[in-house]
Each structure stands twice: as C-alpha cells, then as structure tokens.
Amino acid sequence: MKAPTGDEVLFSLKAYVAAMAALYLSLMIDLQRPFWSVTTAYIVSQNWAGAVRSKAIFRLGGTFIGSTAMVFAVPRLSAYPVLMVGALALWVGVCLYIAVLDRTPRSYMFMLAGYTAGMIALPSVTNAATVFDTALTRVEEISLGIICATLVHSLILPRGIAPVVMNRLDAAVRDARLWVQAVLRGDPKARTARERRAIANDITQLRLLSTHVPFDTGNIRWTARSITAMQDRMAGLTPIVSSLEDRLRTLRASGAPLPPDLEPLLGDIAAWTEAGRSSGDDANRATAAALRRRITDVMPAVDAGSDWNTMLLVSLCTRLREMVDHFEEGLALRRDIQAGLNGAPPPMPRMPITSNRALHHDHGIALLSALAAAFALAACCAFWIGTAWTYGANAALFAVIFSCFFATQDNPVPGIMEFLTYITLSIPISAIYLLGILPALHSFEMVALTIFPTAFILGIFMARPTTFGKAMAMLFGWTGTLALHDTNTADLVSFIDSTIAQNIGVAVAAIIAALFRKISAEYSARRIQEANWKELASMAGADGPPARASFTVRMLDRIGLLHTRLAERTKDSEPVEEDTLLDLRIGNEIAELQRARQELPVVDVAIRPVLDGLAACFRARAAGTAERREGVLRKIDYALERVNGAAPCVPRHRAIVALVGLRRSLFPQAPAYQPVLAAAPSATPDVPSAS
After folding, report:
1. Is 299 helix (H, G, I), strand (E, B) or coil?
2. CA distances from 558 to 125, 203, 518, 532, 594 (A)
3. Which of 31, 50, 355, 544 sits CB 3.0–4.6 Å from 161 for a disulfide?
C-alpha cells in the first residue's frame, strides 16, 4: 500500500472536519439520528470544491422534493398498504427515469428525490401522524451534512477544478492538433479509428466534467461559457478532419495530378496549427485570412462537365476552409479562457453554445432502470408486509438506494455486489462502535476522537479513484448502521436484525438488476448505433435542416459511449461496426443538403429523392433488414448532374460538397462519378462567402 499524498491527507481531514461539524450541530439541536448528517457529509465530499458545491445544491433540492412528496402522500395512503407501496414505487421509478436520462450533475437531484422519499415514507408508513416530524428531522440532518461539507471544502484550502479541466482541455486540443497535422502531411501513422474514438470520448468526458465549472471557487467559473464554446468548436472539428482525411487519401491514391499549390498550402496550414498557440489574436486572424485566400485560389470551378477529381478537390478545399475557421475560433477562445483564469473580466460570448441536453439519451435503458428500482422496492415491501418484520423497512430502503446508485451502468450487478462485499466487511467495525465504544462515551469530544482513526483511513482511500468505491462502501455501511440506531440504546439483537435487513436489501437490488438491467456491452453498443441510424433516417426524412451543432455534439457523445463499450468486448462478441465517425460525417452532409435544397429550390426535385433514399436505407439498417443502396448511388449521381448545371451560388456549393461527401461515405468503392451533361460554356469559382 502506497503512502498517502498531501492532497489525499487534506481531503480526508476536510471530510472529517465537515462530518464532525455536522455531528456536533446535530447533537446540539438534539436530532433523532445525528449520524445521517455524518453519512451525508462524506457522500457530498469530493476532491474539487466546485463538484462539492454543485452536488450540494442538487442534493438539497432532491431532499426537499422527496420529503415534500411523502409528507403529502403518506397520510392519504398509509391505510392502504398496497396503494402506498405502489405510489412509492411509481415515485422512485419516475425520479430515477429522469435521473438516468439527464446525464449531468442535475441528475443527482432527481435520484435523491427518489430514494429520499423511501427514507421518509418507509419508517412512517405504520404511523402516518409522524411523517412530518420524520421528514423535518431527515431534512435537517441531511441539510446539516450538506452545508458543513460545502463550507469546509469551499473555505479551507479549497481545491479548484481549474487544473483538471484545463489539463483535459489542452490534452484534447493537443490530440486533435496532432491528428490534423498527420492528415495534412500525409503521415502514414495517422491516428487509428480507436484513437479517434478516444478523442471523441475525451471531448464528452470534458463536457461532463466542466458542468462543475460554474460552481468552482476560482476564476475558472467566469469562463464556463467559453469552455463550453471551445468544446463545441472541437466537436465540430472532428467530422471536418475525418472528411479531410478521406478526400486527401482518395485524391493522392487516384494518380491524377494535383494543383501545384496544394501541398505547400497543406504544409503551411499544418505549421500554423502548431505556431498559432503562441501567436496573438491579430496575427492569427491575419494568417487565417491569408490561408483562406490561398484555399480559394486552389479551389477549381465546377460546371456540368466537371469530373470526379474536380469535385473531390472542391470538397477538400471547403473542408480545409472550415477547419481553418474552427481552428481560428478555438485559438481565440483558448486565449479568452486564459485571460479569465488570470482574472480578466469575462468576454462577451463569441458564438452560441450547445446545451448538454444535446447529449445522447436512451429512454429504453432509463425505463429498465426505473422498473428495476420499483420492483426491488415492491419485492422488499411485500416481504416486509407479509412477515411483519420489524426491520423490513430497512431492507426496502437499501434496495431503493442501491438500485439508484448504479442505475447508469450497463450491468449494475458487479458494482452492487462489490458494495455488498465491502458493506459486509464493515459489519465488525460497526458492531465495535455501536455496541462497544459509543455507549461508553458521554461527550462529543470523545466521540470525535474515537471516530477519527477509522474515518481518516477511509477518507484517504476515498480520495483515490481506484479505491473510492470500496472505501465509500465501507464508510456507508459503518456510518449508515450508526444512523439507523439510537447509539445509546442499541443492542445486539437489533444490530443483527438491521444488518441482515441491510444486506438483504442490497442483495435484492442486485437480483432485480440482474433480471431487468444486465445487458452486455455488445448489446448496449448496438443500441447506440441504432440510435445513430434512426436519427440519420429522421434527419433525411425531415422537411428542414436540423440543429447541426447539437447533432454533432450528440453523435460525438455516442462515439465516446461506443468507445468505452467496444473496449469491453470479449473475443466471442459479435462484431460491431467501429467506424462511427462515418455516421457523424453522413449526418453533417445530410444537414448541409437539407439547408442547400431549401435555399436552392431549383434542384430540390433532384435532392429530395436522395434524402428519401437515405431515410429508407437507415430505417432498414436500424430495423435490421436489407438495404437497397444501389438506387441511392444513382440518385446521388443524378443530383450531382443537376446541381453542377445550376448557376453558381453558395447553396449550390453546399449541395455539391454534401453530395460528394455522401457518395464517398456510402459508396467508397464505387467507380468514379462520370458527368453526362455537356460542360457549360463558362464557369466561375464556386466559393462560399467569408460570412
């Protein structure tokens, strides 16, 4: 076992101070179960002050919501046990359903609203007249733990989240920059599909981590919008670089001569992505403008007789221009963030930002999680009612808590069983304190002193990511047992009875989860891919363009989710298509095509069949039936003929680039497109305006 670091010791001491402050206040105002505040203080404690504060706010909200709901429901339903259990199960299920869908720190509020209801209702169901007093006491105990933890972690040597967020942000930017440079320079060691999925996963994890930024104690909280905007720029860059990689590889492999200025241009763009980090705003804007002019000079004109390589080159130049735009905006945002960290006033937002509501949501998994929690509660309550077991309510309570704790995992059973193992290991510690030490103590100082060694050691292990779950399980089992008893009057019989109830509740949660929620990483990955295909079908069949930024963020989130699940696959698992960036590219091309057809009605008659064909293909793929893709290729080629023959304008350019992208993404092995229409007598470069 390695020696604790300074940060680990500091975290453990602060968590202990917060817990003892909450215990002291609970004892001073004579609360019924003061150790609930100790348990809460440790649950709320996190390594970063911002995470503690965000968790505290949402935990307080969830506690009040759950308590209020039960104060309303218990007096009205306590005379009807079946209805009472049904109403409580429904409440827990709905709260957990919303929590699983949310996927932000706010989800903690809904989860708390669910199992706090169990903490209030289950002890009060046999005596409804006490429900308000029980609710008030629990709210006071939990609120004290939350407030003390928040104050201690915010005021005593607060540890800001800025270093963690900025390190992750800069690492993601560095990886993306290296990918860009490898693509532009034709590096044969360009990042593999696995590494590209890892970049997508890093972007999503950074997005979720940075949700704590507005609650932090340092200057980084003023840069929250800029950090989110930079993540949006990085998300938008990913499909662009993927498309660039495909176009460059295809053009270089074709053997056809490329414009002599192209390779020097690519080299200069690659050099700028490296040097731009140390340049000022004005220098970067000037360089970016010069690069855009050079891209325009390289871009060829397009007419009805243009060949496939010409259109590939147009697509390449367009993606190059977009990459320069994204990179320029990203550099400016990074400087805004650094200025904010140094204490400068936050700048006005440079662009709209994408909400975390755009992340992937799986309603089916959320429903299964809700049903598992509801059935675990119902099973324990049925046993409790049928046997009139004094501590049956404890079993139901722990079944609800652990059904909620692990609801976001594909297979919650291993996590629940690990918790059960370490809760069981905590039983001797709980017995020594509850039956031996605490009854002999008569002052707060002695209680705090005797608790310190165990709490300090467990706090050290809580500070380590690799042992956090195990330490939290032991601490939860220890302080949770103390919270369920009057420490002055507890006896061996009640201790054994409550411990059995606690373990039965956790075991029931594991059994029900195994029946309802145990799904393989392979199955979860397929659900995510099916969600991709259903969304692509919906986008293609829609009457108008989707919100492109939200789609990109959601698809990158799915790529990140797939990355973690593909890494867990066994050798015997069925193969899952791994090039998920392809779906992202296709979605962006569909969005561009939808925009173009609305702005260029003259070619809508050719573009609409392409979109209808794509919608049919992706619906068939999602349903697991055969696709008819050959017809889509003919429709794309026909649309290219019609669009190439239209008058030059920005929407025409968008349509050409989108159709070329779709053809390359869906039919990479198809013969090169052959124009049929005669070339127009004259053509002008078809370049989008700077706006």
Report:
1. coil
2. 43, 11, 20, 8, 23
3. 50
688, two tokens: 């989008």
List of residues 6+ apart from 603 with CB closer than 8 A: 596, 597, 639, 642, 643, 646, 652, 655
Distance CA 26, CA 36 (A): 9
What integer pLDDT is reported at residue 197 of this predicted model? 62
How is residue 470 written in tokens?
A: 């195990």
Q: What is the mean pLDDT of the chain?
A: 84
The pLDDT tens digits for 193-240 are 556 666 766 777 777 777 788 888 788 888 888 888 888 788 788 888
Distance CA 443, CA 23 (A): 12
The half-sphere exposure of 602 on its side-chain side, counting CA atoms within 13 A, is: 11
- What is the rounded distance in angstroms from the CA atom of residue 253 to the CA atom of residue 250? 5
Q: Letter for the amino acid at 595?
A: R
Q: Does 679 score more than 70 pLDDT?
A: no
pLDDT of 301 > 90? The answer is no
pLDDT band, residue 573 (cuts 50/70/90): very low
459: pLDDT strictly greater than 90: yes
Burial class (CB in 10 A: 0-12, 13-18, 19+), 268: middle
State the Cα–Cα distance between residues 453 and 656, nearest whole angstrom: 70
Inform me whether the pLDDT recorded for 516 exceeds 90.
no
Global confidence as pTM: 0.81
Backbone angles phi, psi at 641, to 5 degrees: -60, -45
Helices 162-184 and 308-341, axial angle in degrees (round to 10): 160
Task: Give the Cα separation of 656 and 320 in Å (integer).
Answer: 15
pLDDT for the residue 86: 92
Instruction: Note whether 454 and 478 are within 8 A (CB).
Output: yes
3-class SS of residue 615: helix
Q: Which two tokens stand for residue 185?
A: 């320079």
Element (H, E) at 691: none
pLDDT of 80-129, one tens digit each? Answer: 888 988 999 999 999 999 999 887 778 889 998 998 888 888 887 777 78
Which of helix, strand or coil describes residue 330?
helix
Q: Which two tokens stand for residue 621?
A: 């793929």
Tell me how far apart the alpha carbons of residues 465 and 492 are, in angstroms, rounded to a whole number: 35
Closest CA to 633 of 669, 678, 596, 597: 669
Determine the Cα–Cα distance for residues 328 and 325; give it in Å rounded to an integer: 5
The crossing angle, in degrees rounded to 10, of helices 413-425 and 468-483 is: 60
Residue 608 in contact with residue 593, Cβ under 8 Å? Answer: no
What phi and psi, each to the nearest 5 degrees, are found at residue 280? -85, 175
The 3-class SS string of 167-216 reads HHHHHHHHHHHHHHHHHHCCCCCCCCHHHHHHHHHHHHHHHHHHHHHHHC
**643 and 631 in contact (C-beta within 8 Å)?**
no
Half-sphere exposure of 476 (CA within 13 A, CB side): 24
> 3-state DSSP helix/strand/coil percent for the chain, to nearest 5?
75, 0, 25
Chain-centroid distance of CA 507 in Å reads 29
Task: Please state, in angstroms and rounded to a whole number, the distance separating the CA atoms of residues 62 and 72.
Answer: 16
